[in-house]
Amino acid sequence: MSTPKPEATLAVNGSLSRHRRTYSIGELARMFEVTPRTIRFYEQEGLLAPERRGQTRIYHEKDRVRLKLTLRGKRLGFSLAEIREVIEMYDAMPDGNARQLKRLLEILSDKRSNMERQLEDIRLMQRELDDVEMRAREVLERLDQN
Amino acid sequence: MSTPKPEATLAVNGSLSRHRRTYSIGELARMFEVTPRTIRFYEQEGLLAPERRGQTRIYHEKDRVRLKLTLRGKRLGFSLAEIREVIEMYDAMPDGNARQLKRLLEILSDKRSNMERQLEDIRLMQRELDDVEMRAREVLERLDQN
DNA sequence: GACGACGTTGACGTTAACGTAAAGTGGTTG
DNA sequence: CAACCACTTTACGTTAACGTCAACGTCGTC
């Protein structure tokens, strides 16, 4: 209760946030090296919900964080649907009923074991790469000695 | 030269192998929980090249290992094309020219940094999950106390 | 010798995640 | 004011990685 949290992650405590900055879609796109089309697509899929000034989208810190998390999730092989599910449940958390919350914990547990497996996969794959690289270097060395 | 390698990985030293077993496509499919269709598709994409007895495909240890590596690669987000590229180069290694070998090392280095990033992503994502889970549990507890 | 399990090829269908092109809007700058 | 951005919507196109279905061959066995 009294210990101040280091920083909010998924949610940015809006009004108190130091970052009063906003972003255009193009800025965000360059920041993360994606196209505006991608960002719009994520919105259409319910992953983002930027403010509008007229027609134009205005992105806040919260949106930027979401995009970042989305892209990270993607790199880990999660589908946009999965990512959205987590985001939606997170948003619904404060007033979420017990069933929803338990479902959320279930999903999180799933993601966790998924990542455990990925860690193992990465370890194994790294050994493979080590092995292949070693052999390749051996062959190269023999070529050089001619 | 004299130190015996613990075990071959990508390539199985065929004739000396203890495993003289072969597999049908259905067996392999069940082992890895994929459909036969998937395995045939991988062959069509140049990832597998099983022996044929008449029409029927016969898979050896080497093919099984390849399939395993392929699926692992997939879980790490590599495309079939990328995986094939590595496999092809590996096969061409013994008589590979220097250019090919250097290109292989390059690819391997790419994969490595890719995986480094994934490791970092996983670490970050795990923190996110911890955070979300904590909050969810807090909310749940308050609900239980009513 | 019919049946079921398993295998084959070929072709078309499907889904996710965008790309791309067209056509229009709104601001600012020379 | 014209030209040029950056942004918008709509809509159709594309690619990877299979799924699905049809139509057929080949066993073992009841």
List the helices and strands and how they pair.
The structure is a homodimer of 146-residue chains.
Chain A: H1 25-32, H2 36-44, E1 51-53, E2 56-58, H3 61-75, H4 80-91, H5 98-144
Antiparallel strand pairs in A: 1-2
Helix pairs in contact in A: 1-2, 3-4
The first copy, chain A, binds a DNA duplex (30 and 30 nucleotides) through α2.
Task: Please provide a brief summary of the model.
Chain A has 146 residues and is mainly alpha-helical.
Any idea what the CATH architecture of the largest domain in chain A is?
A: Orthogonal Bundle
What's the CATH class of the largest domain in chain A, please? Answer: Mainly Alpha
- Report the β-strand fraction of chain A as a percent range: under 5%
Helix content of chain A: 55-70%
Structural category of chain A is mainly alpha
- Main-sheet strand order of chain A equals 1-2
Radius of gyration of chain A: 21 Å
Average of pLDDT of chain A: 85
Distance between the termini of chain A: 72 Å
* DSSP summary: helix tally of chain A: 5
Q: Could you characterize what this model shows?
A:
2 copies of one chain form a homodimer. Chain A is mainly alpha-helical. Chain A folds into 2 domains: 1-78, Orthogonal Bundle (Multidrug-efflux Transporter Regulator, Chain: A, Domain 2), CATH 1.10.1660.10; 92-146. Chain A has helices spanning 25-32, 36-44, 61-75, 80-91, 98-144; strands at 51-53, 56-58. The first copy, chain A, has a two-stranded antiparallel sheet with strand order 1-2. In chain A, a hairpin with a 2-residue loop joins β1 (51-53) and β2 (56-58). In chain A, α1 crosses α2 (36-44) and α3 packs across α4. The first copy, chain A, is flat. Chain A binds chain B through residues 9-10, 69, 72-73, 75-77, 86, 90, 93-94, 96-98, 101-102, 104-105, 108, 111-112, 115, 117-119, 121-122, 124-129, 131-133, 135-137, 139-140, 143, and chain B through 9-10, 69, 72-73, 75-77, 86, 90, 93-94, 96-98, 101-102, 104-105, 108, 111-112, 115, 117-119, 121-122, 124-129, 131-133, 135-137, 139-140, 143. The first copy, chain A, binds a DNA duplex (30 and 30 nucleotides) through residues 24-26, 35-38, 40-41, 45, 54-57, 74, 79-81.
